[in-house]
Design goal:
With 88 residues, the protein is of the alpha+beta class. It starts with 9 loop residues before the first strand and ends in a 24-residue tail after the last helix. The protein contains 1 helix and 4 strands. The chain has a 4-stranded antiparallel sheet with strand order 1-2-3-4, covered by helices on one side. The longest helix has 13 residues.
């Protein structure tokens, strides 16, 4: 059984369509709940996914994916992680 999605996981490129058909950028998970995740790409744009089928596709994309052209993803180095007012 595959490991569940977790904060810090990188989802590469198309993400098996889980973020929509026009999404092609690697993203890093910044928040996760029991049936949802929020991820940010290198430009700072956020993507949201929820539901069992979608999250299963993201797990597959995380486990089999690689950055394009063999580059290492440097996600999260430009933009700070999400924060919630009040420090939660």
């Amino acid at each position: 059984m595959a490991e569940p999605l977790a904060i810090g996981d990188v989802i590469h490129e198309f993400a098996r369509g889980a973020f929509g058909r026009d999404h092609y950028d690697c993203t890093k998970i910044e928040a996760a709940g029991p049936d949802w995740i929020v991820a940010r790409d290198a430009d700072g744009d956020l993507s949201f996914a929820s539901g069992r089928e979608t999250l299963e596709r993201l797990i597959m994309a995380r486990d089999e994916g690689k950055c394009p052209d063999g580059d290492d993803c440097t996600l999260g180095e430009t933009y700070p992680p999400l924060t919630v007012p009040g420090g939660y």
